[in-house]
Amino acid sequence: MSDTPSERTKITDGMSEEELNARHAEKMKKKKAARDKILATKTIEKGLLIVHTGKGKGKSTAAFGLVFRALGNGMKVGVVQFVKGKWETGERKILEHFPEQVTMTAMGDGFTWETQDRQRDITAAKAAWERAKAMIMDEEHQMVLLDEMNIVLRYDYLDIGDVVAFLKEKPANKHVIVTGRNAKDELIELADLVTEMEMVKHPFRAGVKAQKGIEF
């Protein structure tokens, strides 16, 4: 059982810096040994299905962080943006500098409340999904980001059953990332890694508009 903060204070009270350093080193040595023992049991290597969801900011931002990490490791990445077709985003401008590593497709016409045309949105979503399926199944891309796909699934522009059935059959070594709030339960159940972004504060509520370098 680990010491409580008050117990730790009593133990270390009156210790010299040398004694504190020695105690800390011993504690970290034990922690490293325990962690190494755990890591030794993790032997599986596979392509992951990753979902970033929740009402908080940062879902796409975190996903593009994975994209940049993959690029740094020499991987080839496919990106399909489902609902940000009209946005000139900073990440898109940066990724254009890596044409040999990145295949980027923005197939949406903006957010659904901007188009106000359900059939047009459904057509765009289906076209984006077909493009995404091709990249997921090919041997060229090692990671595929489906940015804001959860939004089109939320509005049932794509059938969640069809999407889940397809993702179950993805190549074993292919990483697929899906972003957007309100992820469907079926997708969460299938995913290997799910992160829910929780909003604590947001400047939009204080009247601050979307800003370059932060939102796009």
UniProtKB/TrEMBL annotation:
Pathway the protein acts in: Cofactor biosynthesis; adenosylcobalamin biosynthesis; adenosylcobalamin from cob(II)yrinate a,c-diamide: step 2/7
The organism of origin for this protein: Jiella pacifica
Cellular component GO terms held in the UniProt record: cytoplasm
Record gene name: cobO
GO molecular function: ATP binding; corrinoid adenosyltransferase activity
InterPro entries to which the protein is assigned, alphabetical: CblAdoTrfase_CobA, Co_AT_N_dom, P-loop_NTPase
Catalyzed chemical reaction(s): 2 cob(II)alamin + reduced [electron-transfer flavoprotein] + 2 ATP = 2 adenosylcob(III)alamin + 2 triphosphate + oxidized [electron-transfer flavoprotein] + 3 H(+); 2 cob(II)yrinate a,c diamide + reduced [electron-transfer flavoprotein] + 2 ATP = 2 adenosylcob(III)yrinate a,c-diamide + 2 triphosphate + oxidized [electron-transfer flavoprotein] + 3 H(+)
Record domain Cob(I)alamin adenosyltransferase N-terminal: where: 15-38
Catalytic activity, EC: 2.5.1.17
Subcellular location: Cytoplasm
Family membership noted in the UniProt record: Belongs to the Cob(I)alamin adenosyltransferase family.
This protein's name: Corrinoid adenosyltransferase
